[in-house]
Amino acid sequence: MVSEHTWVRIHQILLKPEQRAENLPEETKKVPLELWDKGFLTTDAEMGTEVEVITVTGRKVQGTLLEVNPCFDPGFGDFVPEILTIDRLVKDTLFGGRS
Amino acid sequence: MNRDSSVQAMLARKNEIMKSAVGIDYDRYETGKIGFDYERLMKETGYDLSSIRQIQQEHGVGKTPLKELHNITNLMRKVAAPGKGARIFIKDEALNDSGSFKARRASIACYQAKKLGFTGVIAATSGNYGAAVASQAAKYGLKCIVVQECYDSLGIGQPEIIEKARACEAYGAEVVQLSVGPELFYTFLSLLETTGYFNASLYTPFGVSGIESLGAEIVEDCLAMTGKFPSKIVCTNAGGGNLTGTARGVLKTTKAKIEIVGASVNLKGLHMASDHDFNRKSFTTGHTGFGMPYMTNPDRSDVPRSAARPLRYIDRYVTVNQGEVFFITETLSVLEGIERGPAGNVSLAAAFSLAQEMNQDEIIVVQETEYTGAGKHHFAQLSFARKRGIEIRFGDPKEEVPGQSIILPDGVDRIKTVDLDLDKIRKSLIKNQVKEIKKIVASDVLYLMDETNASKTFVCETLKELNVEWGE
Fold this sequence. Notes:
The structure holds two protein chains of two kinds.
Chain A: E1 7-15, H1 26-29, E2 33-41, E3 50-54, E4 60-68, H2 82-95
Antiparallel strand pairs in A: 1-2, 1-4, 2-3, 3-4
Chain B: H1 7-12, H2 14-22, E1 30-31, E2 35-36, H3 38-45, H4 49-57, E3 66-68, H5 70-77, E4 87-91, H6 102-115, E5 120-124, H7 128-140, E6 143-151, H8 159-170, E7 174-179, H9 184-195, E8 198-199, H10 205-209, H11 212-226, E9 232-236, H12 241-253, E10 259-265, H13 288-296, E11 316-320, H14 322-336, H15 346-354, E12 363-366, H16 378-387, E13 391-395, E14 405-409, E15 418-419, H17 422-434, E16 439-440, H18 442-452, H19 456-465, E17 469-470
Parallel strand pairs in B: 4-12, 5-6, 5-8, 6-7, 9-10, 9-12, 10-11, 13-14, 16-17
Antiparallel strand pairs in B: 1-2, 3-4, 11-15
Helix pairs in contact in B: 6-7, 7-8, 11-12, 14-15, 18-19
């Protein structure tokens, strides 16, 4: 059970594949148009159920309850060693020799 | 209010919604069969340069430093012909509040929204503009919604866009994220209608005139630092506003002839509305996927008449490849000690090549940088691409196939821009403007001459090829 007023992320299917625009590439047309938003739950609710939230701008938005206290997770990814080759290449070219 | 909210009904109400959401009656500026009075629109609805500068100065925008890239210039001269290799300068626009030149656009849009009494602003953007609008809205106490195209159908988000969502939320905005598809416009219209917020479009006169200060500053900074005008200014080009605003600012500041070069990342072959291709590109802006359609058809934007009309100002349009931009981004960091986001460095990669055509006493200015951070970094983009099975290797960047490979140059002499044929683009714009119309009037010919920055002969020859008649 997730309590009322909890900060959550919700999900909606906006358009089913058959409702999508005409002039789309096939791979886009066969999947739905989806939406994600965040807000405060207006009632206690179970994960995966239809809920209503109030967003930070005060809008009421409905959707499926997806995540509680959603985090920010962009990172720098796995290290790409070619980066170090670029460093060596430009330093060698500019300053000469192996640096 | 219980209005029909179907896609069709929403699109049918498009003009009505737009009119109240930007506060401009675009119909007043229409002329002839196809034309409109661009300069009158800019003059009557926008702001003059001194007002723009004052608004920006009071809101954390502008007066960013122009920096000479001594080491990158010297690196480039190692491979330039004797006596060749212009001095490369960069306008460090990442130092605006919110981290990009987009703050210049947002500052005027939000100022206007506040002046007209709107309580909030909405922007449809997956780029830096979202954070810029959110940041400026925060200063004015305006509510803010940013609508992003962010995820593919597997729920995998482009790292750069996810970071921008985080930034928008950091500035207090609501971020509505969507999966891939142009129907985003429908959601955008629906939000405008239900909230009554201001459309902080990138393409209004406010959004574009806000960049004029950047063109003015480049000229003034360059004169103050070197006693000379730059010979070339390179602008990363996507929707065209950056180039348009910069060029207009230059023209308002000096009569000196300064070549305006547009640069985009080559994403040929990738479809912008494709769920499959969405995460196979490593640049979400500054690429040909936006640059070409917006240059040949500026009015495809989210306002009836776009104020971003790059073909009126561009002298040359070049592309670079993804591998070249990642390479120069790392070089900027490791040789100049300036760590910035890759998308803002498209024009730097181009300048590295263009400078080699110029004399050593000339100056080339790269007119932007953007902030960097988790997700919005070349490390994150290269790693993300490798995970999607995209080949990353050293070699000749010209062998790069967007969506399949990223080729990092195996020597600095491999960084070479490719010129696009502007006359072909001009013809394409004329074709898009006349559409199905078989006869236009004399004022339309003048309008097309302005739109393409071309001669009457060129415009009339193109009209003939299209079997379109014109009145004298």
